[in-house]
Amino acid sequence: MRKQILIVGAGFAGMWAALSAARLADKNDSQAIDITVIAPQPELRVRPRFYENNVETLVSPLMPLFDITGVKFLHGTVSTIHSDTRSVSWQDAEGKTHQHRYDRLILASGSHLNRSFVPGVQAHAFDLDQLESAAELEKHLHSLADKPESEARNTVVVCGGGFTGIEMAMELPGRLRDILGSNAKTRVVVVERGAQPGARYSEELRNVIVSASNELGVEWMVNAEVESVDAGGVTLKDGRSITSSTVIWTVGVQASDLTTQINAPRDRQGRLHVNANLQVEGHEEIYATGDVACAATDDKGNHALMTCQHAILLGKFAGNNAAASLLNVEPSPYRQEMYVTCLDLGAWGAVYTEGWDQQVKLTREEAKKLKVSIVSELIYPPKAERAAAFEMADPYAPFV
């Protein structure tokens, strides 16, 4: 019977896991392994760019790539993992339920925002979590031009000062000018629970964020937590309120709920603890990758973050190692010693840092050029050319 590698998810980690597994099978002349991806759509949605305009264009088709590399695709959603029988239940586009067995399962089902722990967020806040919700926000922003001038219309509140919140907030002054006109008195406010803007980052990076915020007119409310959101805006736990018809929620990222179906340790974000080969603790036939994996990047105590930077390499190692275990090939322990950030700061430019201590290396236009190159070229899927795709899917291939 043919061996089955089943990959749940077609994001950065899932796509690269599929290509990496196919690469190793091809390298070892194996005709006895089927590699199958189950996902809601055969496209890579470029989530790191969802704060931009024209969000519905930020997708890349995967079927040409999968076809040329021999990866099978099933259009559907996995609902249940049966680890005892090594199978999953999944629903196709028509809602019919099917079963698919596996010899190796690679869980790459991503993450989502938890919008339920603060009253009113689900009903009244926008987010950038998925393509559909980001498109809804974009449509809403453009509709502001049709509304009468008011404080609520002209004010946008971004809840959360992490990377997503910062990039969205810094983009907003320019977008609001384009929509409402250069004479409109707009206001962008970031609500941050930390003691200062960019509180979780290095002092050097924080200083850049503060400088860009001041120049763009982005306000920060620090030491602040949201009590509730309603149609009129945001109420903070200290009693302050902000009138706004546009509240954007960017906090509370959690790993896919499918992680709860595997009896294994998870971290506070729901990510499954994995060993160096990315196997889930206690389940050597299951690999976790991308946003569902709590994986050590080095021997210094650092762990992969929920970013495409880590998801891409995690996917390559997971696919390689799942295939290696069926081919009697030595696995390749996951390591990702280098950590960089490139944060878009709107019309101000961008900032590029290196190392876990976030040493600033480039700012403004130099960093902006690098940011554009990363998000518009480097993180996109390879061309549908078999040899080139396999070369890039090598876990040790340079990321250039």
Please, could you describe this protein's structure?
The strands form seven sheets. This protein has an eight-stranded mixed β-sheet with strand order 7-6-5-2-1-8-21-20. A five-stranded parallel β-sheet has the order 10-17-11-12-13. With 400 residues, the chain is α/β, with parallel strands linked by helices. The mean pLDDT is 97. Strand 24 and strand 25 form a beta hairpin. The chain folds into two domains: 3-113 and 253-338, FAD/NAD(P)-binding domain, CATH 3.50.50.60; 121-249, FAD/NAD(P)-binding domain. It contains ten helices and 25 strands. Helix 1 (12-27) runs parallel beside helix 8 (308-327) and helix 1 crosses helix 10 (386-393).
Helix/strand/pairing category: alpha/beta
Question: Any idea what the shape is?
Answer: globular
Total strands? 25
The averaged pLDDT comes out at: 97
Tell me about the largest β-sheet: 8 strands, mixed
Strand line-up of the largest beta sheet = 7-6-5-2-1-8-21-20
Write the layout of secondary structure elements.
Blueprint: E1 3-8, H1 12-27, E2 33-39, E3 43-45, E4 59-61, H2 63-69, E5 72-82, E6 87-92, E7 97-101, E8 104-107, E9 111-113, H3 121-124, E10 126-127, H4 131-143, H5 151-154, E11 155-159, H6 163-180, E12 187-191, H7 203-216, E13 218-221, E14 226-230, E15 233-236, E16 241-243, E17 246-249, E18 253-255, E19 272-273, E20 279-280, E21 283-288, E22 293-294, H8 308-327, E23 340-344, E24 350-354, E25 359-363, H9 364-378, H10 386-393
Parallel strand pairs: 1-2, 1-8, 2-5, 8-21, 10-17, 11-12, 11-17, 12-13, 19-22
Antiparallel strand pairs: 3-4, 5-6, 6-7, 9-18, 14-15, 15-16, 20-21, 23-24, 24-25
Helix pairs in contact: 1-8, 1-10
Domain FAD/NAD(P)-binding: 4-312
Signal peptide: 1-21
Enzyme class: oxidoreductase
